[in-house]
Amino acid sequence: MDYFLELLIGGLTRGSIYALIALGYTMVYGIIELINFAHGEIYMIGAFTALIVASVLTMNGMTGVSVLILASIVAVLYASAYGFTVEKIAYRPLRRAPRLSPLISAIGMSIFLQNYVLIAQTSDFLPFPSLLPALPFMETYSHIIGSAELIIILTTAAATVALTLFIKFTRLGKAMRATAQDRNMALLVGVNVNRVISNTFIVGSALAAIGGILIASHVGRINFSIGFIAGIKAFTAAVLGGIGSIPGAVLGGLVLGWTESFATGYVSSDYEDVFAFCLLVLILVFRPAGLLGRSAARKV
Amino acid sequence: MKDLKKSFFIALWFMLLTFPIMVIRVNTIEKVIEWRWRNMALVGIGSFLLSFVWRLLLDRNERGRKLADGKNPEHRAIGGHPFEESRIYRPTLAAAALIAIAFPFLFSSYQTNIMTTALIYVMLGLGLNIVVGLAGLLDLGYVAFYAVGAYSYALLNHHFGLGFWVALPVGALLGALFGILLGFPVLRLRGDYLAIVTLGFGEIIRLILENWNTFSFGPSGISNIPRPGLFGVTLSLHEATVYLYFLMIILCLFTIFVVNRLRDSRIGRAWIALREDEVACEAMGIDKTRTKLTAFALGATWAGMVGVIFAAKTTFINPASFTFMESAMILSIVVLGGMGSILGVILGAFLLILTPEYLRAFSAYRMLLFGTTMVLMMIFRPQGIVTNIRRVYRFAAKGKGDEPAQM
Known about the structure:
The complex is a heterodimer. Chain A is mainly α. Helices cover 73% and strands 1% of the residues of chain A. Chain A has helices at residues 2-32, 39-59, 65-91, 100-120, 147-169, 171-181, 183-188, 193-219, 226-241, 246-266, 272-286, and strands at residues 126-127, 221-222. In chain A, strands 1-2 form a two-stranded antiparallel ribbon. The longest helix of chain A is centred in the N-terminal third of the chain and has 31 residues, at 2-32. Chain B has two domains: 2-71, no CATH class; 94-380, Orthogonal Bundle (ABC transporter involved in vitamin B12 uptake, BtuC), CATH 1.10.3470. In chain B, strands 1-2 form a two-stranded antiparallel ribbon. In chain B, α5 (86-106) packs antiparallel against α11 (237-264) and α6 runs antiparallel to α14. Residues 72-80 and 399-407 of chain B have low confidence and may be disordered. At the A-B interface, α2, α3, α4, β1 and α9 of A face α1, α2, β1, α3 and α9 of B.
């Protein structure tokens, strides 16, 4: 039973991270129908920035939670800035191009960012300091759930709720929904579509950076290529839940996390990534609209 | 003045943006921080200058689009293609053939080897060109079929002692089989989903090869794969290299011939129609799934075949040769060369494979350049280096009727 609980919690933790990254995919796809391949790289850059800032701070004598908070703020800001810039350079000039063009541009951007970090930093795995504090009251449950895991799950929940409220109630959120429904109509009623798209990238990137910091301090090491696999898995999660849907992305992330966790726990740990990809293929083949998505008939 | 100010702010933005990654490098083990301020200056100056070029190009692009909108599109293409003129075309072809034949005798076997690699990528590019360029299906897992080909030769040779010439068609067939197996369920999907599924499939194949030790010998790979035989004659290493080079030349010519014929065939025109407009295509009575499946299977056949040659050339394969980056490289060859254009793909392959080989200083920046190329090509020249000319049939304006003309 304990083993089962451990896997359940492990899957939940893993799934939360996927969900955080998947939210960015889903929002971008919902608005401009583009798989933003560079999103995984934004997550990686977020983690790297956090590592760099945290290291600089600790070497200058800072300790404790303040390092975590400062590093997180800087990382989130930087990731958002990267997301914004990537959109401006690689996607905006292609707004009216055929569908394949921005997709290829996104792949190019992803390769570029990976190698940019590789060349500017290092190809080795860097140890990531465990920034997440150990909560004292968690001692008694430590055989099932660590405090880092608890923090990850709670942060994800908080971020999701905040995002949902943001989309539902703010002016910008309303503009985002309008743009996602019909871009031309939104333009007609006076929504600044370009700004809305930029903001979508900023919000999505910020969430990815949070995910990056959490997972990096949980796993304890990062390198330039972590974004690729994480990106694909997060995309799987987004598709699983129904791309374009925010609760769908979270549900998809959790389902994917549990699938991986239980499959590695009960079947074999060698094929961890294979399970995720198989799930992706199966979902796309049998239910392309996803768990919570609605399949819209295309009008001609 | 306004431009200057704008560029100044862009430079400032990029200096700020790249600050943590470019300037600071921390060594967490020895606890030292390295500040590289020089990089910051470089980024600043670089982005300042590049922003001018960027704006200029974007402006030109925009103006070009407006011009094209106003004019008859036919005027654009006329005179744009010197290779169609037989006066230029024939001597160029003869010169290329001469260089191709003389190459291994003029240069060392090291150079010949590099050339063979480039030719391998020419074939891969042409194969992927069927899928991406002609049929418009973005396949990001192309390398999986390449791996299938390479492993089928390596394993068949290891277990049953099969030779290269038997393995070549077997590898091609297995590639096609895998193409159909994958294509059957996923080809109903829309473009971008297809890209992700093929990417996932490529990774699945690689991960299985890496982890299924009893089948594929895991990450350590398979070594001692024999080179292709020549009627039982034993060849020295140099001779074997030259032999493989000519083999590749012949296979490339064969590929070019087949792809060319395919493009002009009924199925080829169906691919192009499908790429342009799926709905209209279906309305014209083209079986969408079958047409896509043929493209997918034919592309995979080529990858399988080249995989066998790759295994025979390197005599050692392991899963590390078949990563997503390889797929991305082949894709950028197709994108750079010009989707759908055979000549373009050939030029693209030579450019992308040979440039980093000969400019060693570049090789660290190789993937960086690939990424940049893909983005820039999409923005500024989506049709590639060589624009694919569409064959059109026009009625002559006066009298004579339906004399076919090309543009």
